[in-house]
């Protein structure tokens, strides 16, 4: 790739790309089974509250007050929070790929994600994401949430980069298409192999290590 067209910045989602989703429908279903909750009632309450939580306008405790602890339970809040946090799993090969691309190509790495503050902070710390990600445009930090296009504009303003020299990776094609409206190159992440191939096509290849 010509130097003037070289990719300088990777924008990434966290859930579904670097890690599992933080609190998805499968996690909620498992929590209902584990803690003997009414799953349908929990889902109704979740959908009424979770967007507000992800926008940073509700704490995790306030979310749980509305979704789980609106009546007395035979388990405590800390037990349930621990269960929530433990639903997160890393995607180690994707993490390794991004770290190596950052080193090889001197990339700026940024996150654009929908995550509630407490879950987001736990996941950043647990998986040491801040050791290779330069900044986090997280919904709960900036009070904007995908699919609001404003969160992508904010990310570009903070990063101060040329959209044409940037890539956005997400497992949700809708969000990829929104990023592309700004001139950002998009990758719909479905698996490591296809994402690696698309990155290669944009000139982001891994430089083989020379072993003496």
Describe the model.
This protein is α/β, with parallel strands linked by helices. Helix content is 48%, strand content 11%. The protein has 2 domains: 3-21 and 89-201, Rossmann fold (3-Layer(aba) Sandwich); 25-85, Putative phosphatase, domain 2 (DNA polymerase, domain 1, Orthogonal Bundle). Helix 2 (39-54) packs antiparallel against helix 3. The chain is elongated and about 60 Å long.
Number of domains: 2
Task: State the major sheet.
Answer: 5 strands, parallel
How are strands sequenced across the largest beta sheet? 3-2-1-4-5
Query: Which blocks of ≥5 consecutive residues have pLDDT under 50?
Result: none
Mean pLDDT rating:
95
CATH architecture of the largest domain: 3-Layer(aba) Sandwich
Q: Based on CA inertia axes, which overall geometry fits?
A: elongated
Structural class: alpha/beta
User: What Rg, in angstroms, do the CA atoms define?
Assistant: 19 Å
The percent range for strand residues is 5-15%
Task: Briefly summarize what is shown.
This protein is an alpha/beta fold and 212 residues long. It has helices spanning 25-35, 39-54, 60-67, 77-85, 92-105, 117-126, 139-142, 150-159, 173-181, 192-201; strands at residues 9-12, 108-113, 135-138, 166-170, 185-188. Helix 2 (39-54) packs antiparallel against helix 3 (60-67).
């Amino acid at each position: 790739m010509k130097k003037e067209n070289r990719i300088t910045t990777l924008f990434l989602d966290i859930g579904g790309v670097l890690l599992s989703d933080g609190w998805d429908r499968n996690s909620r279903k498992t929590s209902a089974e584990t803690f003997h909750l009414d799953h349908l009632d929990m889902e109704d309450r979740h959908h009424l509250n979770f967007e507000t939580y992800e926008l940073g306008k509700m704490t995790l405790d306030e979310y749980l007050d509305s979704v789980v602890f609106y009546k007395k339970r035979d388990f405590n809040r800390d037990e349930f929070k621990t269960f929530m946090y433990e639903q997160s799993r890393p995607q180690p090969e994707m993490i390794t790929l991004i770290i190596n691309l950052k080193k090889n190509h001197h990339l700026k790495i940024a996150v654009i994600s929908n995550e509630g503050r407490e879950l987001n902070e736990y996941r950043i710390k647990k998986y040491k994401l801040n050791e290779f990600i330069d900044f986090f445009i997280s919904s709960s930090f900036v009070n904007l949430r995908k699919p609001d296009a404003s969160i992508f504009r904010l990310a570009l303003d903070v990063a101060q980069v040329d959209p044409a020299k940037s890539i956005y990776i997400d497992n949700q094609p809708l969000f990829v298409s929104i990023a592309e409206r700004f001139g950002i190159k998009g990758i719909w992440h479905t698996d490591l192999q296809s994402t690696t191939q698309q990155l290669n096509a944009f000139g982001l290849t891994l430089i083989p290590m020379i072993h003496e």
